[in-house]
């Protein structure tokens, strides 16, 4: 019987793993989240231009060389922040809207407004950095944005149920979105003393939709 010990097997290499990335998907996700969170915090505190990649890595408690396999530049981090921000807001909106009765379209509209206003006012610093931090004017086709589509779904559902009227649901949702954002901006600037921004907007939206009593 041959008792020669078997040669050790070579380590298994996981295909597709980038150099410098952590070993497991959970750790990778956690490190990515830490980097995005640190970038958002520093962008708000110091501004996009003044924040360095070194500072972001240090704030996330990772080596600078570990940062680049995830994000090659501040522009990449800004894009990730934008995706995470909009995804988080939409998750909150959907949860509040779906908690309302399926056929109570006025309540669902109010839930959309309450959540959107709360998110906008509580995270306005991060919002402004994400959408205006590079000092470039941004114009989006808001009819295709998730937040506007979710509003259009509520408007369209109410139209089908005979609760209100809208000749062009998509266009109405876009106009209402900008009304919502403008109302929040006025409240932030203190132009008008509006203690219940979402309530006032809800009243305005029902009037725009010619809602039945």
Any chance you could write out the topology, listing elements then pairs?
Elements: H1 25-46, H2 53-59, H3 64-67, H4 74-98, H5 105-122, H6 124-132, H7 146-160, H8 169-189, H9 197-208
Helix pairs in contact: 1-2, 1-4, 1-6, 4-5, 4-6, 5-7, 5-8, 5-9, 7-8, 8-9
Structure description:
The chain is mostly helical and 213 residues long. It has 2 domains: 19-72, Arc Repressor Mutant, subunit A, CATH 1.10.10; 85-208, Tetracycline Repressor, domain 2, CATH 1.10.357. 62% of the residues lie in helices and 0% in strands. The chain has 9 helices and no strands. The protein has helices spanning 25-46, 53-59, 64-67, 74-98, 105-122, 124-132, 146-160, 169-189, 197-208. Helix 5 packs antiparallel against helix 7 and helix 8 packs antiparallel against helix 9 (197-208). Residues 1-22 have low confidence and may be disordered.
Mean pLDDT: 85
CATH superfamily of the largest domain: Tetracycline Repressor, domain 2
Largest sheet: none
N to C succession of SSEs: HHHHHHHHH
The count of DSSP E runs of length 2 or more, i.e. the number of strands, is 0
**End-to-end distance, in Å?**
93 Å
- What share of the residues lie within helices? 55-70%
Features:
mainly alpha, Arc Repressor Mutant, subunit A, Tetracycline Repressor, domain 2, 9 helices, 0% strand, elongated, disordered N terminus
């Amino acid at each position: 019987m041959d008792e020669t010990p078997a040669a050790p097997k070579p380590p298994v290499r996981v295909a597709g793993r980038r150099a410098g990335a952590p070993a497991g998907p959970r750790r990778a996700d956690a490190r990515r989240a830490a980097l995005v969170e640190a970038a958002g915090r520093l962008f708000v505190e110091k501004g996009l231009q003044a924040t360095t990649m070194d500072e972001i890595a240090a704030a996330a408690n990772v080596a600078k060389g570990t940062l680049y396999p995830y994000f090659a530049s501040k522009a990449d981090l800004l894009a990730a922040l934008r995706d995470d921000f909009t995804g988080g807001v939409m998750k909150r909106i959907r949860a509040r809207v779906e908690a309302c009765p399926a056929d109570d379209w006025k309540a669902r509209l109010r839930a959309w407004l309450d959540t959107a206003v709360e998110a906008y006012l509580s995270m306005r610093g991060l919002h402004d950095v994400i959408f205006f931090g590079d000092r470039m004017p941004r114009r989006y086709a808001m009819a295709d944005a998730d937040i506007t589509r979710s509003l259009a779904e509520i408007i369209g559902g109410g139209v089908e149920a005979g609760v209100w009227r809208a000749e062009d649901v998509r266009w109405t949702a876009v106009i209402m979105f900008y009304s919502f954002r403008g109302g929040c901006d006025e409240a932030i600037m203190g132009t008008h003393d509006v203690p219940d921004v979402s309530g006032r907007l809800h009243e305005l939206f029902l009037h725009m939709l010619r809602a039945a009593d």
